[in-house]
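Quick one:
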Amino acid sequence: MKRPLITEKSTVEKEERNKLFFEVDRRANKIEIKAAVEKIFKVDVLDVATINMKGKKKRVGRHFTQHSDWKKAVVTIKPGQRVEFFEGA
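Output:
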C-alpha cells in the first residue's frame, strides 16, 4: 500500500458504502492488499477491487511526456467498522 486516495468520490463512498480507496503497488494482488489492510487498520475486509490506471499524457513545450501507470484498490470493510486514519478527512 502506497497511500490512501482522498477525493470527493472516495469520501462519499466511505460514508455510504464503507469503501476505502488506496494507491497500491502495481504488482500487488487482491489477497496481499486484503491482508495488508486488515493488519494495518485492524478491520474485517469483505471485498477488494483493483483497477489499473493509465498515466496521463502531458505536454511540456513541444515535448510530450507521460506519468507512470498505477494501480488503485477499492476495499470494502465490514459495516459498522471505522478507520481512524480517514476520520479527519
